[in-house]
Write a structure and sequence with these properties.
The chain has helices at residues 3-11, 108-112, 123-128, 135-149, 155-176, 180-183, 188-199, 207-214, 218-229, 233-249, 255-261, 267-278, 282-291, and strands at 15-23, 26-35, 39-43, 48-54, 63-66, 76-77, 81-84, 90-94, 97-107. The chain has 298 residues and is of the alpha+beta class.
Length: 298
């Protein structure tokens, strides 16, 4: 029984496998999960990075906790991209509902070979795996999603190349994330302040505004934020707003209104940013959600 078969057996009947491809260093599948009610389950994979790209909006009440490392009351929100590290026990909690994901079960050795010999799983690195905001990783997962759905000439070689790039980018992401005492990352209170401001509807916050909220310079913020999140402030802001837009696209709110509320200067600017982040336009995303076959990258 392979990795996916064991997972399907454990999570059935709420999991439906829609696409599957097996490669030497990774197994790929598109799955549909239907949580009838709020639920939770333990998750642990030995020897695998379990990378989950949520193809529909991640539910706002989805949470996770490292049971072996964190206290019983600490949970963190799950982002649209997660890379659950090998060997760690997680308690995954769902608020209920249906969603689709691209899963890439990447062999640990594929990533480990690019990590330094003294690499350690710090608390900040573990937390950052639950919400990856990295444009390179996002783009690679989007391409993998498209490739396994629409095979063409040399598809197997293309997927192998994408998996290799994903391994390198994930290693780079993990290396960039470090404890604030070691590399100058942002304190937890500053991240909370930033995330609260970014989540507010209306115009996108400027770097100067965010730095002022944190009582540091823009240069300090840019450097510390990259250490904490592995991406630029601008990339993170846009990604959060795109996620907010996805949730609104599940309603009957007009696309023009969504563009304004999520802070874009015009509907065309919103459409450009949305398509760049997801590979489809807001209208296409909404149509596919309504048909239940959404495959946008988060």
């Amino acid at each position: 029984m392979n990795t996916f078969d064991r997972t399907l057996a454990a999570m059935s009947p709420m999991l439906q496998l829609e696409r599957e491809r097996i490669h030497p260093m990774a197994e790929l599948m598109v799955i549909r999960l239907d949580h009838k009610d709020s639920d939770e389950h333990l998750f642990c994979k030995e020897g695998l990075f379990w990378i989950d790209l949520c193809l529909t909006p991640r539910r706002v009440h989805d949470r996770a906790s490292y049971t072996d490392r964190w206290g019983p009351h600490r949970t963190e929100a799950m982002g649209s991209i997660m890379a659950l590290p090998p060997g760690f026990r997680l308690q995954l909690r769902s608020g209920g509902g249906e969603h689709m994901s691209l899963i890439c079960a990447l062999k640990e050795e594929a990533v480990r070979r690019w990590l330094p010999a003294d690499f350690q799983w710090t608390d900040r690195r573990l937390e950052s795996c639950l919400n990856i905001s990295n444009t390179h990783i996002s783009a690679l997962l989007l391409r993998l999603s498209q490739e396994i759905r629409h095979e063409g000439v040399g598809s197997e070689q293309v997927v192998d190349a994408l998996i290799l790039q994903l391994s390198v980018e994930l290693a780079r992401y993990l290396i960039a994330i470090d404890e604030p005492d070691d590399r100058g990352g942002l304190a937890a209170w500053r991240m909370r302040v930033l995330e609260q401001r970014i989540a507010e509807p209306g115009p996108l916050p400027t770097l100067i505004e965010l730095a002022t909220l944190c009582s540091i310079s823009t240069r300090q913020l840019s450097r510390a934020f990259r250490t904490s999140r592995g991406c630029t402030v601008a990339d993170y802001v846009v990604r959060c707003r795109i996620e907010a837009a996805k949730r609104r696209l599940a309603t009957d709110e007009s696309i023009k209104s969504i563009a304004i509320v999520t802070g874009f200067s015009s509907q065309s600017a919103f459409t450009f940013a949305f398509r760049r982040a997801t590979g489809v336009t807001p209208h296409e995303f909404r149509s596919r959600m309504l048909r239940g076959i959404t495959y946008s990258a988060a």
